[in-house]
Amino acid sequence: MAEQGMTMENGDDLAVAVDNAWNQVERLRRCAEQMRAAVGTGSSADGSVEADVDGLGMPVGLRLHGDVRPVRGPELGARVVEAFAAASHDLARRHRAVQVELGLADAR
Fold this sequence. Notes:
The chain is an alpha+beta fold. The protein has 2 helices and 3 strands.
Protein backbone atom coordinates (compact mmCIF):
# COMPACT_ATOMS: atom_id res chain seq x y z
CA MET A 1 0.00 0.00 0.00
CA ALA A 2 2.80 2.39 0.82
CA GLU A 3 4.13 2.03 -2.76
CA GLN A 4 0.84 3.31 -4.09
CA GLY A 5 0.91 6.32 -1.76
CA MET A 6 -1.81 4.87 0.42
CA THR A 7 -1.48 4.61 4.16
CA MET A 8 -3.62 2.62 6.57
CA GLU A 9 -5.24 5.89 7.67
CA ASN A 10 -6.16 6.76 4.07
CA GLY A 11 -7.53 3.26 3.58
CA ASP A 12 -9.74 3.63 6.65
CA ASP A 13 -10.98 7.00 5.42
CA LEU A 14 -11.76 5.49 2.04
CA ALA A 15 -13.68 2.60 3.65
CA VAL A 16 -15.75 5.07 5.69
CA ALA A 17 -16.44 7.18 2.59
CA VAL A 18 -17.54 4.11 0.60
CA ASP A 19 -19.76 2.96 3.47
CA ASN A 20 -21.36 6.42 3.75
CA ALA A 21 -21.94 6.56 0.00
CA TRP A 22 -23.55 3.12 0.04
CA ASN A 23 -25.85 4.14 2.91
CA GLN A 24 -26.91 7.22 0.95
CA VAL A 25 -27.66 5.09 -2.13
CA GLU A 26 -29.79 2.76 0.02
CA ARG A 27 -31.71 5.71 1.49
CA LEU A 28 -32.35 7.08 -2.00
CA ARG A 29 -33.51 3.65 -3.20
CA ARG A 30 -35.96 3.36 -0.28
CA CYS A 31 -37.17 6.87 -0.97
CA ALA A 32 -37.77 6.09 -4.65
CA GLU A 33 -39.66 2.89 -3.78
CA GLN A 34 -41.88 4.67 -1.26
CA MET A 35 -42.53 7.57 -3.61
CA ARG A 36 -43.38 5.22 -6.47
CA ALA A 37 -45.83 3.35 -4.21
CA ALA A 38 -47.58 6.53 -3.04
CA VAL A 39 -51.04 7.39 -4.32
CA GLY A 40 -52.39 10.92 -4.35
CA THR A 41 -56.12 11.47 -3.96
CA GLY A 42 -58.08 14.66 -4.49
CA SER A 43 -61.50 15.95 -5.33
CA SER A 44 -63.14 18.92 -6.96
CA ALA A 45 -64.14 21.77 -4.64
CA ASP A 46 -67.76 20.64 -4.61
CA GLY A 47 -66.77 16.99 -4.05
CA SER A 48 -68.59 15.75 -7.13
CA VAL A 49 -65.43 14.37 -8.80
CA GLU A 50 -62.65 12.39 -7.10
CA ALA A 51 -59.36 11.45 -8.74
CA ASP A 52 -56.28 9.37 -7.95
CA VAL A 53 -52.74 9.63 -9.31
CA ASP A 54 -50.00 7.04 -8.90
CA GLY A 55 -46.54 7.69 -7.49
CA LEU A 56 -45.35 8.97 -10.85
CA GLY A 57 -48.24 11.43 -11.11
CA MET A 58 -50.15 9.47 -13.76
CA PRO A 59 -53.97 9.36 -13.51
CA VAL A 60 -55.18 5.98 -12.23
CA GLY A 61 -58.71 6.61 -11.01
CA LEU A 62 -61.67 8.86 -11.51
CA ARG A 63 -64.97 8.69 -9.65
CA LEU A 64 -68.05 10.74 -10.52
CA HIS A 65 -70.69 11.10 -7.85
CA GLY A 66 -74.43 11.17 -8.54
CA ASP A 67 -74.82 14.92 -8.52
CA VAL A 68 -72.32 15.38 -11.37
CA ARG A 69 -73.83 12.91 -13.84
CA PRO A 70 -76.03 15.52 -15.60
CA VAL A 71 -73.08 17.95 -15.90
CA ARG A 72 -71.50 18.01 -19.37
CA GLY A 73 -68.86 19.79 -21.38
CA PRO A 74 -66.47 22.38 -20.01
CA GLU A 75 -67.99 22.39 -16.52
CA LEU A 76 -67.38 18.65 -16.09
CA GLY A 77 -63.90 19.03 -17.60
CA ALA A 78 -63.07 21.78 -15.13
CA ARG A 79 -64.15 19.57 -12.21
CA VAL A 80 -62.05 16.67 -13.48
CA VAL A 81 -58.99 18.92 -13.90
CA GLU A 82 -59.58 20.35 -10.42
CA ALA A 83 -59.75 16.84 -8.92
CA PHE A 84 -56.56 15.69 -10.65
CA ALA A 85 -54.77 18.89 -9.57
CA ALA A 86 -55.80 18.23 -5.97
CA ALA A 87 -54.60 14.61 -6.27
CA SER A 88 -51.25 15.80 -7.66
CA HIS A 89 -50.93 18.25 -4.77
CA ASP A 90 -51.65 15.41 -2.30
CA LEU A 91 -49.03 13.25 -4.01
CA ALA A 92 -46.43 16.04 -3.74
CA ARG A 93 -47.22 16.34 -0.02
CA ARG A 94 -46.78 12.57 0.40
CA HIS A 95 -43.48 12.62 -1.51
CA ARG A 96 -42.22 15.43 0.71
CA ALA A 97 -43.16 13.46 3.84
CA VAL A 98 -41.15 10.46 2.58
CA GLN A 99 -38.12 12.66 1.91
CA VAL A 100 -38.33 14.20 5.39
CA GLU A 101 -38.78 10.78 7.00
CA LEU A 102 -35.62 9.49 5.33
CA GLY A 103 -33.67 12.63 6.16
CA LEU A 104 -33.35 13.72 2.54
CA ALA A 105 -35.18 17.02 3.13
CA ASP A 106 -35.69 19.38 6.03
CA ALA A 107 -39.06 19.54 7.73
CA ARG A 108 -40.54 23.00 7.31
